[in-house]
Q: What sequence folds into this?
């Protein structure tokens, strides 16, 4: 084995707001760590099932398609009501909806 999965990291200009947004839609909570308001924010699944996600502050907006993204189970209408944007609805041979968070980070939504 060359590597072992550890955490996910997501860049955001307003990393505090994006940490709150992702906590709200995933049911995650912030993990308290020592740091400043400009430090990355770790969010965790309180049930211990999902991975630790770091929301990292960056100075620039997202400008190109993600090379890696999250896949989630969810309701695209509820995610849109929470502030996500539909990029491409499910259809044809694609069994998922492609959406973007409020800063444009894309993710795929699979309906149960």
A:
């Amino acid at each position: 084995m060359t590597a072992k999965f550890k955490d996910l990291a997501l860049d955001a200009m307003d990393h505090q707001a994006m940490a709150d947004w992702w906590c709200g839609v995933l049911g995650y909570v912030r993990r308290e760590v020592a740091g400043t308001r400009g430090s990355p924010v770790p969010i965790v699944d309180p049930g211990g099932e999902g991975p630790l996600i770091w929301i990292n502050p960056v100075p620039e907006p997202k400008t190109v398609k993600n090379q890696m993204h999250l896949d989630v189970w969810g309701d695209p209408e509820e995610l849109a009501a929470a502030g996500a944007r539909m990029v491409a609805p499910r259809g044809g041979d694609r069994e998922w909806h492609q959406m973007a968070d409020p800063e444009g980070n894309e993710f795929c939504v699979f309906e149960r």
Notes: Helices lie at 15-26, 76-81. The mean pLDDT is 93. The beta strands are 8-12, 29-30, 41-44, 53-57, 70-73, 85-88, 97-100, 106-110.
